[in-house]
Amino acid sequence: MTLTLQSTKTLHNGIEMPRLGLGVYKMTNPEEAVKAMTTALQVGYRAIDTASLYANEKEVGESVRASGLKREDVFVTTKVWNSDQGYDQTLRAFEKSLELLGFDYLDLYLTHWPVKETFVDTYRAIERLYEEKLIRATGVSNHHQHHLEEIFAKANVKPMVNQIELSPRLTQYDLRSFCADNKIAVTSWSPLARGGLLNEPSLVRMGNKYGKTPAQIIIRWHLQHDLTVIPKSVTPERIASNADVFDFELSFEDMKNIDSLNLNERTGADPDNFSFDF
């Protein structure tokens, strides 16, 4: 497939979601955060992924307004945190996020983690926000197949997106296949395994072959697997570099070689065993 920085993935309700976005986890310095987001929008990114936990929703809104872009040209995602889950609590958390962002709607709203007692009710609240046209798409984050199946049993509308930890060290093939069968787009967080793959010899060799960095090789691998991907960086040069992945294509053999790096190794928590307060 021919991809550009403006390429989008069509969600199952017809909404177009950019395939490459900026993740803003741990961007807690307001000035640094605004600079990073502004740089990304100038480079050509059209998606920003935040969460109430990240404490930078206000800066996301400021960056979008300062960019000179139309609000509808930037796809903004945020998430409801674990302690705010449940039906009524989620509706209140959404109002707070929207106020901090300074928007009158969101493109995508996600359950951050599947809190056992509340994640189904949390998704029901997200459905209501969708019905009321306060969000353009529904979704979840860090949900395994069994979490999704529990949601399916109660939901009127299936989640459109599942954002999960995914890298060449954690390829999540079975979950990706299940999502594909149910027309749920998969977004990769921690796509570079928190930098743990940047010295992997096979990726260094491929970088030399294509004239790219290992990070660019990995981001391209995500894109060629039909994943949407949200690498994070506060460094302007790296933000630009992470987007410079549309002038080459990995061969079938190289894609398979990267697939073979899988160790089912997480850098974050397992959704079936996570601390509520982490």
UniProtKB/TrEMBL annotation:
Substrate binds at residue 112. Keywords: NADP, Oxidoreductase. It comes from the Bacteria. Pfam families: Aldo_ket_red. This is Aldo/keto reductase. Residues 23-262 form the NADP-dependent oxidoreductase domain. GO terms for molecular function: oxidoreductase activity, acting on the CH-OH group of donors, NAD or NADP as acceptor. SUPFAM superfamilies: NAD(P)-linked oxidoreductase. It comes from Paenisporosarcina quisquiliarum. The record marks 79 as: Lowers pKa of active site Tyr. The active site is at residue 54. Belongs to the aldo/keto reductase family. InterPro entries: AKR, Aldo/ket_reductase_CS, NAD(P)_OxRdtase_dom_sf, NADP_OxRdtase_dom. Gene3D superfamilies: NADP-dependent oxidoreductase domain. The keyword Phosphoprotein does not apply.
